[in-house]
């Protein structure tokens, strides 16, 4: 047991937990018994708060633990996360402005709310809500896997359920302050998390090369280690001929999917204005610089000869421990404890936001839509609080029963799932040409094909055993009813990209057909002016005030 490291970690963890409980008094609302207050922080966060909140939401344990672990194991492929965050913000700026405006006018809390209003389809909105919840669950599990990797490195690595006991304690604390303070808790804690992360990483990228012979030596040693079959190496610091397409489609698919996640939109909808979003899309790429430095730690771990800790619960090496073990080996105990706290808090902040976003979807688009249509705002808020507890508990169970060695695949598989909402959510912000029934059919085809292909990917490529072992497939596996036009081509491609193309193809082909048979279009409650509105200062919805959709914005 590393007591000095654990003491520093526990002290900072206790500090942010107190902040989480105190957040209910920060920017105090008249009442927290409303989703706008509990789930969106009153929709009044300014530029600085939004920057820390969205940054804390998007740059997660996936960034701090899983990406360096992928670089450690595969080399260049792990850097796909860097170009995707570079192209991300220019791609999503204008769609997010339109989503923010129409949501402010109509009081939408979730993307499924928007789809319900845009297409007048309860079925399509429910599918979008269920997809968002399912895609978010593995993402939350990834955060908890990162937290558990830190705990394991400090010595909390017992076998069986006892090995997960510290994680359950962290889960209870997270659940309680999220239940009480809602989105205000992670928004306030994000300040501490980001300051810690920047301090730790800047020190690491300057100090580690002085101990390991410089970055040139680090990369040379990493190249030799990754290509050495005697040490189990199977990667390279350069992309191979078979994974260049995978790299490109994975980067683009990840960029398209990130703001389709409900937790990403939650941070945007909580902001106070369109100007806040514009400023953040300019400033958030600063995190991409941080991401690049974090990825390099995977090479530093290779050069330092780091070995992953064996998971006491599963008996398998836990690659998520690569960065924590590197800090333990190369830094003093107190600084390693500081780094562990940064990683642990970096996991808790997005986990809280994700659970809130999933709870909003359940409450607005399943509970109120189908189970209790007459629910009051107070009943909605109570239901969301309870749902957030269930979501966190489900994520903890997935960590207990899933090998965290594959934690990065949790996010990549979630990306395949959430990408299937792009036609109904993102494209609908610009055109309503696609018919709602064609969108349902496209979603079904893309989802079914994508999950089937993910299921067929083995966890152990050498033996072909297991399922859901990754998110890439060779082009030679692509076929239709036994016809395989690309047979023999071993070039890899991201499953999500192919599933999305099938989704769009079905939606485009079926749209004129279902219109020809006279299928009802559904009522669009939005108008063009809604997508450019600056929004209302209160949370009144047009359906509550009796105003036309554009009147709230003009106020």
From TrEMBL:
PANTHER family with a match to the protein in the record: MONOCARBOXYLIC ACID PERMEASE, SODIUM/PROLINE SYMPORTER-RELATED
Subcellular localization, as worded in the UniProt entry: Membrane
Family membership noted in the UniProt record: Belongs to the sodium:solute symporter (SSF) (TC 2.A.21) family.
Main location: membrane
Organism whose genome encodes this protein: Actinopolyspora xinjiangensis
Protein name: Solute:Na+ symporter, SSS family
Superkingdom, natural source: Bacteria
Annotated TM spans: 6-24, 45-65, 71-94, 123-141, 161-179, 186-208, 247-270, 282-302, 334-363, 384-402, 408-430, 437-455, 493-514
One cellular component (GO) term of this entry: plasma membrane
